Amino acid sequence: MPLRKYIFRPGINREGTNYSNEGGWYDSDKIRFRKGRPERIGGWEKNSSNSFIGTCRNIHIYRDIAQTNYQVLGTHQKLYIKEGIGFNDITPIRATTTNGILFSATNGSSTITATDDDHGAVVGDFVTISGAATLGGLITAAVLNQEYQITLVTTDTYTFTAKDTDGDTVTANASDSGNGGAGVDGVYQINTGLDTYLKSTGWSVGTWGGGTFGSASAISATNQLRLWSSDNFGDDAIACVRGGGIYYWDESSGTDTRAIPFSSLSGASDAPTLALQIMMSEIDRHIICFGSNAIGESTIEPLLVRWSDTEDAADWTPTTSNQAGGVKLSAGSTIVGALKTRQEILIWTDIGITSMRFVGQPFIFTFNEVAKGPSMISPNACVNANNSVYFMDRGGFYTYSGSAQRLPCTVLDYIFTDINLDQLYKVFAAANEDNNEVMFFYPSSSSEEIDRYVIYNYLEQVWSIGTTEDNFARTAWNVALTLDYPIAAGKIDTSNLNYLYNHEKGHSSDGSAFTSYIESSDFDLDPDGEKFMFISKLIPDVEFRNQTSTSNEVTINIKGRNFPLQSLSTLSTISVTPDSTFSNTRARSRQCAIRVSSDNVDYGWRLGDLRLDIRPDGKR
Q1: Which sign does the torsion angle of CA 461, 464, 470, 476 carry?
Q2: Which stretches in the chain have pLDDT values below 50?
Q3: Predicted pLDDT of residue 569
Q4: For 19-69, how does the pLDDT look when each residue is reduced to its tens digit (9 = 90+)?
Q5: What DSSP state is assigned to residue 141?
Q6: Sheet with 79-83, side-by-side order of all strands
Q7: Which of 239, 458, 534, 570 has the most CB atoms in a 10 Å sphere around its CB?
Q8: Nearest to 449 by CA among 229, 230, 225, 241
């Protein structure tokens, strides 16, 4: 028989069975579609050799008037401002103890117990100690007088592991107790949050030592997945712990200056102390809190939207002579998230979407419900791209450009039948505008952390899927229009030290190989699938990109099975190089599938049209 060209439909389709999707693609990893053709995605490498502490779930990037690039990172343990290659710790201070800390050390132990009445710390918090002298022999002043992470707490005590300035553990060679000096000070950073999402609270929920036996506590910033929101107010940065405080970082004070509560700003008037999310409006520069405490109250009203006076971060008191104000949304029970779009701010509640628009005096902002039903699966599951908004709900994907429209999705069942809804607030959306893509990262049902992603090409309206294997675990993303590459935060499970990565750079996983593949659905020889087929030749069509050697290769596997419910077995393996012509094969089966894969660091590839020499081979 003559050669037969095989052109598969673009996009991954998992809405039916493998066999029913004949002529299409069924599975992939680290693959995108461009002009209908599958190709390997770009590589990634560390943004700098410096690491940061904690899991980052928010990145905000901006440039000041002097053209200095800043990156604001919020992790479950810290708040950073990155300038150049360095991460500067700007985590706000919660409390300070002066001349009031006592220590005890035990011979042969590296655990130090600190006594500080009503310290208010929880496990994982950070305290910086100063004014201490030598304790327990080897526990010198240099060992004690530094930042420590708290490991165990009671109401009046906490413990930490003694380390030298290089981070190596130090063991006391004598038991001792006292103040370790004339007067020991402790500076406590704001309480850390969790790296796990909790739907409710009660026994076994939250940090150890965070409550009394058998007690239940309201969901708060300390017993919930730590999510930050951040923005810039001119050259300065603003940030909010979801369910916790709102903070202001003054660039003019330098990167070694910590952020402070809005209530501590000079001239602060009725500034919110708690919120679910914060941002700055593009018009008239109001700072807006979504889900805030009301004036004179100390608890969050989850539907209350408050904003400051124009061009003023400190004044939140509504008067006839300013533009500060607030509105409580009428529909739903809580605000899930908000996003700035063209000429409006979209606010997702648990039952729909509200549009917030600036109109000036006397109302300042108007609020109109623009969708009933669609919501968001998590506060970060929305993104701007292609002059539209794309977001993920609990049961589908949507786009908004004046109205909310559900996106047809060929991998919908694959995603939502295997997603961990117990960790749904970890889901986030990302944009890769150079490739016309939006991405959604999510945890599968067998994972507590993000381990899968889905890509939607909004120009070609096709989907692809993949995993976070090969160091592709991401927890936050920023398209970084003012920088050279999109920026993403990684997560290393074996360490609390994590990195930022430049994406779409090169063809490696930070210098190492990563695996990419795409696999077709089954195809057969005749419409009824009755006859066996014999494949004797394959002529490949692969474009190698940025190749450095004629030995670069892509592997093509011909797989087969005789019945749809059988497992696929590999019938032939073919190595394709830049100078390949054809390959003789001996592959016999009733149904066949094609898998194209690579594992390399030097080059990319794009698949064209494959040609196969196929002939009938009987019915048995």
Answers
A1: positive
A2: 201-217
A3: 96
A4: 999 999 999 999 999 999 999 999 999 999 999 999 999 999 999 999 999
A5: H
A6: 56-63, 69-75, 79-83, 86-89
A7: 239
A8: 225
Nearest CA among 355, 243, 366, 372 for reference residue 299: 243
Q: What is the pLDDT of residue 494?
A: 83
**Distance from C-alpha of 529 to C-alpha of 231, rounded to nearest angstrom:** 58
Closest CA to 294 of 270, 315, 330, 261: 270
| Cα gap 227→75, rounded to integer Å | 8
Helices (H), 417-519: none
Indicate yes or no: pTM above 0.90.
yes
CA dihedral 456, 461, 466, 470 (to 10 degrees): -70
Q: Which two tokens stand for residue 74?
A: 């919020």
Q: Can you tell me the distance from the alpha carbon of 490 to that of 477, in angstroms, rounded to the nearest whole number?
A: 9
Q: Name the amino acid, one letter, at 358.
A: F
Instruction: Give me the count of residues in the chain.
Output: 620
Q: Which regions of 514-566 does DSSP assign to beta strands (E)?
A: 514-520, 533-539, 542-545, 554-561
Side-by-side strand order, sheet with 487-490 = 44-46, 500-503, 487-490, 474-478
Phi/psi of residue 101, nearest 5 degrees: -110, 135
